[in-house]
Amino acid sequence: MAADPFEIVGVIAGIFGVWLTTRQKVWCWPVGIVSVVAFIVVFFRARLYGAMALQCVYVGLLAYGWHAWLHGGEDRGALRVTRIPRRLLTGLLVAAAAASGIAGYWLRTRTDQALPYLDGFATSFSLVAQWMQAKKHLENWVVWAAVDVVYVGMSLSRGLTLTAGLYAVYIGLAVLGYRDWRRSMSERIRA
């Protein structure tokens, strides 16, 4: 079976975009938009509707992140890496857990979704991770790593080997991103 050109574009732009994110380069946002638009098509064809809908939401979140990184900091300047307040993190994770169950149930009962509960989990927690990333909260990388593990399995189960490889690379990039963002935050605090 020939590789899907949308999947190829999504994978290449996705890896490049996340690598730019680990380096805190603002170009990560428009590159990310290219990737998610390609994956809207890929996930629709694979009947992973939660993942597809998530890509649609990402277009807006990526535009928000682009703006936030440029103008969301002090005096409308660039954002800096920070830790998320523990209470906010707990609330976000509880909300994502509840949303994943609701989304999974809805996908199972209302669609021909291939993996409803896993897709509901990955979709809900991805939204939390993406928002945290847009706000430059260090802990976004931990949430992304957990989500990416789920996406590797989902992608393999649907025959999307390039996409599974992409999410495996994302796990490594999440480790790199966490390390680099933590270093950036520590250097700023020491200065």
What is this entry, summarized?
With 191 residues, the protein is mostly helical. It has helices spanning 5-22, 28-45, 49-71, 86-110, 116-134, 140-157, 161-190.
% residues in beta strands: under 5%
Q: Can you write the helix and strand succession as a string?
A: HHHHHHH
Beta-strand segment tally: 0
As residue ranges, the low-confidence spans are: none
Class from helix and strand fractions: mainly alpha
Number of helices: 7
In whole angstroms, the N-to-C terminal distance is: 55 Å
Biggest sheet features:
none
Outline, from the CA principal axes?
globular
The radius of gyration over CA amounts to: 16 Å
Task: State the helical fraction.
Answer: over 70%
Mean pLDDT: 92
Defining key terms:
191 residues; globular; 79% helix; mainly alpha; single chain
Could you walk me through the main structural features you see in this protein, from its secondary elements to its overall organization?
By secondary structure, the chain is mainly α. It contains 7 helices and no strands. The protein has helices spanning 5-22, 28-45, 49-71, 86-110, 116-134, 140-157, 161-190. The longest helix is centred in the last third of the chain and has 30 residues, at 161-190. The chain is globular, with a radius of gyration of 16 Å. The mean pLDDT is 92.
